[in-house]
Amino acid sequence: MVSTMLTTGGGGFSGRLDFLFKEYYHISPNKMSVAGVISSLWDAFNDPILGSWMDRKKMGPKQWCFVMRLAAVTGHTLVLFKMINFGGNMTEMQHLVTLVVLNCIQDIIGTLDAVAGQKLRAGISPYTQQRTRTQVWTSIGNSLGFTVSAIPNVLMGLQNVFGWNDYQIIVVGTAIMLPFNICGSMMITFIRQRVDFKYAGKPANSLPYDMDQGFTVPEKEEEKKEEKPQPTEEEIKQQKAEAREAKKRYYKAMVERDQMLADMTREERRAWKKEEKAKKKAQKAEKKAEKAEQKDFRKMVENGEIKIDPETGEPKLSVGQSFAVLKYNKYFIWNTVANFITVFTPSVDSSLIYRYLVPKLNVGGKEVTGEIFLTLRDYVVGVPLSFTKPFSRQFVNLCGGPLRVHKIHSACQIVASFIKFVIGINKFWKLAIQILIDALLYVIQDMDSVAGTMMTYEMLDMVELKTGFRTEGVTNSINGLFAKIVTNNIGTVTGNAFLQWTGYKGGYKESGEALPSRFVKYMWPMFTLTGVFDNAIFLIARSMYKHTPEDARRIENELIEMRKHTAGGPDAPKEGERVPVHANKE
């Protein structure tokens, strides 16, 4: 909670990079798109490889903590470097090149940090409900940190009062908050590990385990290759004769079948064909089961197809095998499909809408922009959320589980986005209705966030139960890849193209120049109606698979039993037992 509070507070300044480049440096939106495309291509190449590599690497909590602490210092410092104007001597192209290079470096750091953090969070408890509590407290920390994150909106809305420009507000604020961001990111590394993942990658029941000797790898007997003797002439003649006889029997059987069908009535022929079809279907299912058994990951370990480190008992999965494990995670697959469909949805900056399209306020005889109202709105809509946050997990359980909450959230977002589009924001009474709608949406959105955490842990547990492998690395890296593409790259590319089409150039507040008519006419519809499309796609995707709280409890209990058997069992928690702080005695 404290970690999130600190990083959220600092993010109010450091998260204004794109805004700063457009409004202060006046860089063309389409040129920003070029930098975004290059960064997204690097993401596509870098994230999945690094994630699957971390799944296969011999790393434990100590190594993950080191990675996260190093990433905390370097990652946040790089954000500040991307913002600095260096005395005003940098050209537009130099700004863009610096942005791309630092983006690529930061992406490597961010991927390692995200995967390590996911693995640490998975080790706090074997129970999904307990792990989900971290998301609830994280959400509370986010609300507490919002007070500081809203400061740049206030300062930019009062520029005429204080006389500070956008560059001074954002860059100086980012520098001041840098130590808090670093400290906040490092705090996660002090999470106590209560689940022993020392041998977490080992497929269950595939290797014998001795409390003194550890894992023992079964030796695979070398197959002796014996040269087959060449058949004699008489044997060749006999084989040909047998082949001829088999051919005759086949044709005879065909003739008998045709005669049998001719003697049958129409109803008898239909029944016979139905029976034959059922037989073929059963044979096909049997072959499919045999094929699946051949690809079973535990069998692959036993057969020596997947190598095991004799010291740690951990499997050495290839990149392809890491991705093959993901087929069991239906939640991940359909989320990926939905992300892929919505990947080109334009990302519209709400700051520009409130900066230019919301009615201005008069403070002490001086005009201030809509950023003040944006800050006021965010504070007001957060009031109901402050009372519901501590009970988000209970609300998710009460509503029927995380998957149902996902569907409820998508449906509510569709309806709310359409209502907001119709109402508009050109009058204060309309803005008041917008606040009321957002206040309700924030509560549901917080529940959806908790539901997402719950579903992620439950699906990772299910994959471990089916295959014996935990896949935080490759799963988190691909999820991160799509998140970056949607929010920071491809979505921004299409959003910038739309912004360029409206005629936007930036700096209208300082220059006093009139806004382009297309900007005024189309920004609000694009901002609201894209939410209708995106949430409709996710609603359809999440209706394509089933997962109930009963399934989650069954998976959790079976996984605990599996780990108890795998690790020798004396310290494994019993069914329904809470995990004590000292569960990992080593």
Please tell me about this protein's structure.
- By secondary structure, the chain is mainly α.
- It contains 23 helices and 4 strands.
- Strands 1-2 form a two-stranded antiparallel ribbon. Strands 3-4 form a two-stranded antiparallel sheet.
- Helix 1 packs across helix 6 (128-149), helix 4 runs antiparallel to helix 5 and helix 16 crosses helix 19 (428-467).
Multimeric state: single chain
What structural category characterises the helix and strand content? mainly alpha
For the largest sheet, list the strands in their spatial order: 1-2
CA-based gyration radius: 30 Å
Mean pLDDT: 76
Strand segment tally = 4
Query: Looking at the structure, what is the overall shape?
Result: elongated
Can you count the helices? 23
Low-confidence stretches: 198-225, 567-586
Provide keyphrases for this structure.
disordered C terminus, two-stranded antiparallel sheet, 586 residues, 4 strands, 23 helices, elongated, single chain
Summarize this entry quickly.
By secondary structure, the chain is mainly α.
Outline the secondary-structure elements.
Layout: H1 2-14, H2 17-23, H3 29-56, H4 61-83, H5 92-122, H6 128-149, H7 151-157, H8 159-162, H9 166-187, E1 209-210, E2 214-215, H10 233-263, H11 266-294, H12 297-302, H13 319-325, H14 330-341, H15 350-356, E3 361-363, E4 366-368, H16 371-388, H17 392-398, H18 402-423, H19 428-467, H20 472-501, H21 508-511, H22 517-541, H23 549-566
Antiparallel strand pairs: 1-2, 3-4
